[in-house]
Amino acid sequence: MSKQKTKYITIPSKTILPERDASRKPVLECVNLGITLGGIKAVEDFNLTVGRTEIVGLIGPNGAGKTTVFNLLTKVYQPTTGTILLNDKDTHGMTTTQINKAGIARTFQNIRLFKNLSVADNVKAAMNNEMKYGMLSAILRLPNYKREEIAAHRRALKLLSIFDMQDMADVRAGSLPYGAQRRLEIVRALATSPSLLLLDEPAAGMNPSETAELMDSIRKVHEMFQIAIILIEHDMSLVMNICEGICVLNFGHVIAKGTPDEIQNNPAVIEAYLGRKKEA
Nearest CA to 48 among 80, 24, 26, 81? Predict the structure, then answer.
């Protein structure tokens, strides 16, 4: 599936968004976001606006602060400075659970599955907020419990089918091949019905064939769910081919934002991350 170039326009607030998202409020606005860890400013003056259906890449050298930004967005860390607006709502003081309910789901650098549970049960575990039965109903296996469980299982199979994993529903998650475990993490994140999906190095450890398959799957997710996606990734081929906008971090600071073409030709990015151009 080939990538089509996205047309960006400047909306009245001077923010640049994809044209298709310009008439709606951004899904995410980070304003002067920062955090100090152990006396060191891990992230400082981080500003990023993401359109409601935009795919954004967050790149930079190791230690640049990328995962720290994800941890701030999901409230693993509380910001020292700045504001995070999610769906136009200030997330100040929210917990990780509350931020997930509000619309952010994520995957991690290191796979975090319930490895002794089945594939389907891993997905259903993420639907806990939507279950409408109580503990007593579950213990006694009352009709309401059974209806909810059947509906959840059907939805889990539907989500798994995005990655052609429905036939693996009863397989123990820990026995899956590495690439399949990565895909299962994404499915589980989608099960929370997010408006913003954060993917932390989704292609890590994958071979070129698996990476190409992942790229197509991310596009499929984006097309089916019409949600915003931010991904951290070191595979520049994946980033340049799938992301519409790219934000580059270095030592906790944003050094560039733009389209893939702009980023690839930005001198500051070339020097800090992509590698110096050789002199003639």
Answer: 26
The Cα-based distances of 234 to 223, 237, 262 in angstroms read 23, 9, 18
Buried b (16+ CB within 10 A) or exposed e, 144-180: ebeebeeebbebbbebbebbebeebbeebbeebeebb
Domain with 150 in it = 115-177
- Give Dmax over CA atoms of the chain in angstroms: 76
Is the same domain home to 121 and 156? yes
Query: In 110-235, where does DSSP find H-type helix?
Result: 119-125, 135-139, 143-160, 178-190, 208-225
Number of domains making up the chain: 2
- Residue 137 has what pLDDT? 55
Determine the pLDDT at residue 280.
Answer: 39
**pLDDT given for residue 2 in this prediction:** 56
Residues of the chain where predicted confidence (pLDDT) is lower than 70: 1-4, 7-14, 129-146, 273-280
Helix (H) or strand (E) holding 232: strand 228-232
Count of CB atoms within 10 A of residue 139's CB?
Answer: 9
Helices 178-190 and 143-160, packing angle to 10 deg: 130
Return the pLDDT at 271. 83
Q: How far apart are CA 123 and CA 179, in angstroms?
A: 16
pTM above 0.70, yes or no: yes
Do 141 and 246 share a structural domain?
no
Q: How far apart are CA 57 and CA 269, in angstroms?
A: 14
